[in-house]
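Lab manual, section 2.4: Encoding a predicted structure.

Procedure: take the sequence of the chain (254 residues), apply the prediction step described in section 2.3, and record the output as structure tokens. A sample record is shown.
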Amino acid sequence: MSNDDGYQAKGINSLIDMVAPFGDIVVCAPDGARSGFSCAFSAEVPLRLKLQRREEGVEVWSCNGTPVDCVKMALDNIVDRWPSIVIGGINHGDNSSVNSHYSGTMGVVMEGCMKYIPSVAFSLCDHSEDADFEPMRPLVQRMTERVLKEGLPRGVCLNVNFPVIEAGSEKQEASAYRGVKVCRMARGRWVNETVKCHNQRGYDYWWMAGNYVSDEADAEDTDRWALAHGYVAITPTRIDVTAYEMMEQLKTWE
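Recorded output:
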């Protein structure tokens, strides 16, 4: 198990509690926030591991690298057998649409998937440090158990995003969500992605920011539509990014 919010984040610690009934857990997560690191790994930075805690059925390690570094380090240096599943999350913030390409949480499961380990990422559309993950529990447990029992096709991982439950809902029940939809990734883009500031010492600097724009807001088969309408969105995601429909056309180019 890993994430991009750091081993101390509420999301990953909630996830540990949710999936503890299914077996032994090894966590290797960044020692601080690594959001936006996608599938990056540290080619020129020496990596360090630190055991943060060990109790019955759970080991929690931190690493000074990226989320992908954490998976690689755990597989090579911590686990004593090949794991049954790799889980990313629970992320503080959604990883739907093109966000999945930037996500360190998705980097975790893409790395697991490339190792042919069944891999699932869980995210909540709430960036708050104290977000309420409890409504997710029944569905997280159900999906984890299903993947453990049935596995996933080679080269396919799951990107699972949860909307925020409205105040007053029965928060312990999966029925608090309108339902679950299997979706495709929505087409969209980020705009106005940098904010320019001026330092009093005389130089300019920028913050990465931006606004997401949907290019198909009314498409009901997408993850963004599902989340906007109170559904949990499950998007099967492939490692193979080949545009097969373009292959024959390219063969005609001279």
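Check your result against the sample. The longest strand covers residues 231-238.
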